[in-house]
Structures are given as C-alpha cells and as structure tokens.
Amino acid sequence: MPHPIMFDDADPFLVRVREIALALPDTTEVVAHGRPTFRCGKMFGNYGGGEKGGERHDQSLLFIPDTAEREALMADPRFFLPAYLGPYGWLGILLDDDTDWVEVSELLDASYRHVAPKRSIAKLDTP
Fold first, then answer.
1. Can you give the residue ranges of every domain in the chain?
2. How many other CB atoms sit within 10 Å of the CB of residue 9?
3. What is the mean pLDDT of residues 42-57?
4. Which residues of 69-89 are buried (b: 16+ CB within 10 A; e: fewer)?
5. Is the pTM of this model over 0.85?
6. 12-121 in CATH: which number?
C-alpha cells in the first residue's frame, strides 16, 4: 500500500524549495513516503517531516547540515531533529513567511555537497 501524498504542489514554500533544489546540477525530485525528496544520486533534501513522537511539520525542509554548524543550528528554535532521519545527522528547518531564502539556499547547498558525486559538485563550482 503506497504512502498517502502529504503535500500540495501549489504550496508556495514547496515551490521555493523546488526552485532552489532543482537549480543544483544533476538534481531530481522523487516522491518518497508521500513527500517530495531532492536527490543527486542520494537524497539531500526532503520537504516536510516531523519530530519523533511529536509534531508534524508539513512546511519544513529536512537537510544534512555541515558538522561544524549542527550544534549552533540546534540552538535555534526554527530547527528541529526530524524523526527517522535525525539519527543519521539530518536536521529540519521550519518554513514560514519570515523564512530567509538565502539561508535555505545555503543549507541545501551544504546538504547537496555531502552526497553529490564529485562530477556534479564540479559543475556547481564552475564559474
């Protein structure tokens, strides 16, 4: 039995996340477990998620943070430890009308660099 779809293509936050993620070289979008995921070989972004045993955050972005920034991000109330992916180093950021989209772009870029093949990263770094 497939997972129910847990997103709306017209969601303006999803539209912005898609624009940012799909602008990265060789990125694809795949619906998995009812949510949009962004991949370059491996998954580097997931739209929507929740906290284990807690609140569901349909307008959020799950990503792999830089190790050096993880602790500082966790101290910010906009970030949360997502169910399932949290134990593997992932974090989530809540998206709202005050979202800093430059920051979201930087978080997705860092996450992408964790999983993308060297040839894809080279395309990103080419002027």
1. 12-121
2. 9
3. 94
4. eeeebeeeeebbebbebbeee
5. yes
6. 3.90.1150.30
